[in-house]
Structures are given as structure tokens and as C-alpha cells.
Amino acid sequence: MVVDDQDLVRDGIATILDGQPDIEVVAQAVDGADAIRQSTAILDLAVVLMDVRMPVMDGIEATRQLAGGPKVLILTTFDLDEYVYDALRAGASGFLLKRSSRDELINAVRVIAAGDALLAPPVTRRLIDRFAETRVDPDVAGQLDVLTAREREVLILVAKGNSNAEIAAELHLTEHTVKTHVSRMLAKTGLRDRVQAVILAYDAGLVTAGRR
């Protein structure tokens, strides 16, 4: 589903995606409320491309209401849009810049549909530096109790924006082993992807903004 209040943007994205053999645009929505209404009738909806600033209901609230359903990929004009962090906290699996290329758009949908998060390490660092809150939530911190010491180490490095390859080098592990630790960490904490893991780490006080 493509959600954007600008007809040309929405139609353009839908046309590009519908031209791919493995992607089908099953719906278009003009705002968040429209997206919520339509999503209830689509059983196999996998990914929602969600604009942020829209009338009636914005993308953040719509993302929050879709939590637990289809994966949400936020569409934004600027990579440091003040709303992006709120959208990620609401449950989005990543974001895509509206100035992205055709190939980047197609790849983003495929990545999100496959269950991965779309948030490049450099972007993670900028977002966290700008938006991360340093207040610790004791209830959230308790979620980390289920993790092993190694899994906590991996979570810290994920939260700092490191890729699996960088984490492997830091901890002297293979990249495959790091992927296994990340998967187990997500499963134990009930998180959907790396983006949500980053938010958990900051909310729990495991890492704080500006700390490397």
C-alpha cells in the first residue's frame, strides 16, 4: 500500500512498484485514516509505504495503529525530519527518502517485505544523536534481563549504528555468529527488527545519546 496525500507522488511510486514481477500494489491511500480503513480489508498486505505529514491522520499515528500488522516503511523528505524518530518509535521498520532513486525504492520494499529493517548505520547514528532520549524507563530496562552478556554486547553495538560486519570485527566473531546473536536477541525481547532494538537500547539506558 502506498500512502501519500500528493496524487502525483503516490501514483508515481505505485507505477514503479507495480512494474516489478515480485511486487503488487494492492491499494493506495490519501492519509493515515484511509490507510487504516483499507488495511483491514487486505489480508495479504505486507508493506505500507507511509508519508509522514498528511491531513486527517498523519503517518505516525497510522503507523502506531498498524503495529503488529504490515511492516511500515516511512517516506520522508529529509533524513533528519523531526518526525522520523517518532515514527520509528511507533513501530516503523525504517524509512526511505523521497529523493531516493527508482532502484532504491524497489530495494527498500523488498528488504522490508523480507523482514529486515531499512536503516543504514550512518543514518542510525545521526538519528540517535539528534533524537535519542536519555531518560531510562525501568520497565523497559527489565526486558534486557533475558539477554546473555554477549547478546547485550551485540545490542549495544547495534544501537550505536554498527553493521553486522563491524560488530564481527569489534567482537572478533564471524558475521554469521553475529547474525545469530542478533536474531536471538530480537526473539528474546519480542522485537521485530534492528530499528526497534536501537530504540529499546536507548529507552533502557543501555546506551545514551552521544556515547560511542
From TrEMBL:
Residues 140-205 form the HTH luxR-type domain. PROSITE patterns: HTH_LUXR_1 (PS00622), HTH_LUXR_2 (PS50043), RESPONSE_REGULATORY (PS50110). Keywords: DNA-binding, Phosphoprotein, Transcription, Transcription regulation. It holds the Pfam family GerE. One of its GO terms (molecular function) is DNA binding. Residues 1-113 form the Response regulatory domain. GO terms for biological process: phosphorelay signal transduction system; regulation of DNA-templated transcription. The modification 4-aspartylphosphate is found at residue 51. PANTHER family: TRANSCRIPTIONAL REGULATORY PROTEIN NARL-RELATED (PTHR43214:SF24), TWO-COMPONENT RESPONSE REGULATOR (PTHR43214). This is Response regulator transcription factor.
